[in-house]
Design brief:
alpha/beta; Nucleotidyltransferase, domain 5; 13 helices; 54% helix
Length: 341
């Protein structure tokens, strides 16, 4: 059986496989269980395999590459137009097999195990921060029912809780103070967990050469640097910096027709977590541009005088994303504007 290309519709237990030969004739339609997949592909000669970039896709891509196959991952929204008739596993596998052969298809870089380790660290930290925010909002809401209003910042509530527990004339009953002390302990536990994850990220950022180069860019710290590495690796899947900024959703959306170019707000595509970090990092860098006189700071000062600071923050995040791509793909250090190469 001369198989040229295979599309696999991934799932948890049942996988649908669709293959064609050199004349684009269907030669393989098969359903495999999870335990059968690798044993089946061991017997096949090396070929091109396409899969959607979904849960478990990077694991299966690495395992199939070890068997000598060429594996390419695609975003599900790019495979959707090739689905014929009704949606089922067989039609999905056929669409994947057809989409992976398109010459202009955009592919997703396969993550290494190290990248997935860093990504897991960021996902856990993000969830812990979300839980802490929810806990703070719960405490503030309960206190408001007793006529006590506390500031919105986490540190304000953190400092106010011991005093509220000690006071005797603030209207809080003994029973509620017991409950409030339990919530305070939950908040302390979440703080310790987030601090521990932050330390791990900082340690990783200081030991990784690529992360150290990225931290030379104003507005990029350990968290953003490691998040960039786990998301894009060396960045060579993008041809230019603008492609990476567009993938992050930091470039304008288009609604052009009839020769008229109409640009809208940023597209907000791609990784929302990474885009949010870049914009927050740009906000921190904007706070100190008024004290500097380098070309980059003058450009930001001029931009802030003409446009809203939120627009300036997004523009700086876009610029930082392009610079980060250059540092990762070319493995060079950051050179501030105005300094000779």
């Amino acid at each position: 059986m001369n198989i040229k290309r295979i599309g696999i519709d991934l799932a948890k237990q049942v996988f649908q496989v669709h293959g064609v030969d050199g004349q684009e004739k269907v030669v393989l339609r098969k359903q495999l269980r999870r335990v059968q997949l690798l044993d089946y592909f061991k017997k096949l000669p090396p070929c091109l395999i396409g899969m959607e970039a979904c849960g478990g896709a990077h694991y299966w891509a690495r395992e199939l590459q070890k068997l000598g196959h060429t594996v390419k991952l695609m975003a599900p929204q790019f495979v959707k137009p090739y689905v014929k008739s009704n949606k089922n596993d067989a039609n999905d596998a056929e669409a994947i097999c057809e989409a992976v052969a398109r010459p202009n298809m955009r592919f997703v870089a396969i993550k290494t195990i190290a990248q997935q380790d860093i990504q897991a660290l960021h996902r856990i930290r993000s969830e812990q921060v979300k839980q802490r925010t929810a806990k703070v909002n719960q405490i503030r809401g309960l206190l408001a029912e007793y006529g006590i209003v506390v500031g919105r910042r986490v540190d304000v509530l953190r400092n106010a809780l011991p005093q509220l527990l000690e006071e005797t004339e603030n209207g809080l009953t003994a029973d509620f103070k017991v409950l409030l002390d339990g919530l305070r302990q939950d908040l302390v536990t979440l703080d310790e967990r987030v601090d521990d994850l932050d330390k791990k990220i900082k340690t990783l950022a200081t030991s990784n050469p690529a992360a150290k180069r990225l931290q030379q860019i104003p507005g990029i710290g350990p968290i953003i640097a490691t998040a960039l590495i786990c998301a894009i690796g060396d960045g060579k899947q993008f041809q230019r910096g603008r492609d990476m900024a567009s993938w992050l959703g930091l470039t304008p959306r288009q609604h052009s027709s009839g020769g008229k170019d109409r640009l809208l707000g940023i597209s907000k595509r791609g990784d929302a977590y990474l885009r949010t970090l870049l914009i927050h990092g740009a906000r921190s860098a904007l706070k100190v541009v008024g004290k500097k006189d380098d070309p980059r700071s003058r450009w930001l000062q001029n931009l802030c005088s003409r446009r809203n600071k939120n627009i300036a923050a997004v523009a700086l995040a876009n610029k930082n994303a392009r610079i980060a791509w250059a540092l990762l793909s070319k493995e060079t250090d950051y050179l501030p504007e105005g300094e000779p190469a």
